[in-house]
Design a protein that fits this description.
Elements (H helix, E strand, L loop, with lengths): L11 H12 L4 E2 H11 L7 H20 L3 E5 L6 E5 L18
Antiparallel strand pairs: 1-3, 2-3
Helix pairs in contact: 2-3
Length: 104
């Protein structure tokens, strides 16, 4: 079946997040990544309610990636905003092909 408009296929958001984090020189916040998802999908980034919803969903996806050992997080603010980066030294991808290695 065809998904509704702006719906993601299974794993699509996590692949997007890993790719965006991998290409960044600095650790990105959950809000930065949510805004990037919205821009990539053509959603209105000025809609605060939608940004909050996408931020929550992005946080859940990132938490799953953290549990699986692909990313780490550090507090960015006292309010609980997190900064995310790949695991490993100097941004080197770790964890096999799912985290950016060239061979499975």
């Amino acid at each position: 079946p065809v998904p509704p408009p702006n719906a993601a296929f299974r794993g699509e958001v996590q692949r997007f997040l890993l790719d965006r984090i991998r290409k960044s020189d600095v650790a990105l916040t959950t809000h930065d990544l949510a805004r990037a998802i919205m821009e990539a999908r053509g959603l209105n980034t000025a809609d605060r309610a939608l940004l909050k919803l996408i931020s929550v969903r992005t946080g859940h996806s990132l938490s799953k990636l953290r549990r699986n050992g692909f990313v780490t997080s550090q507090k960015a603010t006292a309010g609980g905003l997190l900064r995310w980066q790949l695991t490993g030294k100097d941004g080197e991808p770790v964890g096999g092909w799912r985290n950016g290695a060239t061979t499975p």
